[in-house]
Amino acid sequence: LARVEVSLTEAAFGTETEVGFRADRACPACNGDGTAPGSSRVGCATCGGAGQVRVARRSFLGTMMTVGACPDCQGVGTVVEDPCPECEGRGVANAEQHVTVEIPPGVSTGTRLRLTGRGEVAGPGASAGDLFVEVVVAEDERFRRDGDDLIHHVTVGLSEAALGTEVYVPLIGGGEQAVEIPAGAQPGWMTRVRGEGMGRLGRRGRGDLIVVADVVVPVDLSEEESDLLRRYAELRG
Helix H segments across 103-198? Predict the structure, then answer.
């Protein structure tokens, strides 16, 4: 298992990145054979090169014959008489590996990607297993993610909420978009910008950008501002 961290923007649109990890791969000195230079593997005397042995087991039903992997050659059928000095006959060596990973749009933290045949090699003659890459999506101070949607909060003053205003909100792909906040907008007012959210994992299209208005009530009014608000309160009854 390897882990890779991507930004929220990379998670939204997908990206290509390199992942480093340690794993057992075929020994470069013996090409995974496990034998020293100039020598070769020989047939296993225990199983006669079959890789399997019959084992008699007694039970209350009588003697039963089972077939299992040879304990001396681990099912390979051959053994090493003159082991490779680099891997000591194991046929594998642990080393730092690097693979390029395609991160699809819409991934979230915890998404696991499977790379067939890029994992560890168990031993001589064995094929490489699969590598699982776990994705971690970094936080972005501009947005909060809700599934395929992104949420962005804008701060507006009391007078702006009452009279209406225009604000510019950031887009995950770069740039900004103007959003009209209508007169009389209440705290928590929200609107959707269609198709400006996250990519949908395994599906077409993108989620939405949800813009939420946070109305700020002033706490440090001047005497003149206080008088104006009192006059406003009188007019509103």
Answer: 158-163
Q: Say if CB 4 and CB 86 are below 8 A apart.
A: no
Q: For residues 156 and 167, is the Cβ–Cβ distance under 8 A?
A: yes
Amino acid at 59: S
Give CA–CA dist 32/46, Å, rounded.
Answer: 22
Task: DSSP letter for 149, please.
Answer: E
Global pTM? 0.74
Pairing of strands 209-216, 149-157: parallel
Give alpha helix (H) positions in the chain: 8-13, 158-163, 223-235
> Can you name the residues that pair with 133 across neighbouring β-strands?
2, 113
User: Could you identify the residue written with the tokens 């009209």?
Assistant: 180
Mean pLDDT within 219-228: 89
141 CB-near residues (< 8 Å, 6+ apart): none
The per-residue pLDDT for range 53-106, each reduced to its tens digit, is 888 777 777 778 888 888 888 888 888 889 998 888 888 888 888 899 999 999
Q: Which among 93, 98, 120, 84 has a CA at the least distance from the CA of 17?
A: 98
